[in-house]
């Protein structure tokens, strides 16, 4: 099924890949940058960055929660 979010993300990625990289190979898109066809690339990149940070924090929180509340491992006694 076609999802508008998927199209927007794919379009953003294509615009991002078309944006010229600097000497370090990084694409530093100004936050207010708009492409010639009107795509808000700076806003798109900033949004992707924020989503990545949120997902990373969520993973770290889940990881910590899992390890902090896990019962200690009990090894069977060898007789």
Outline the fold blueprint:
Layout: H1 4-18, H2 41-68
Structural description of this entry:
This protein is an all-alpha fold. The chain has two helices and no strands. It has helices at 4-18, 41-68. The protein is elongated. The chain starts with a helix and ends in an 11-residue tail after the last helix.
Q: Detail the poorly predicted runs.
A: none
Structural class: mainly alpha
Q: What would the principal axes of the Cα set say about the shape?
A: elongated
The number of helical runs is: 2
Strand content: under 5%
The whole-angstrom Rg is 21 Å
Largest sheet: none
Instruction: Name the quaternary structure.
Output: single chain
What keyword list fits this structure?
79 residues; mainly alpha; 54% helix; 0% strand
Quick description:
This protein has 2 helices and no strands. With 79 residues, it is mainly α.
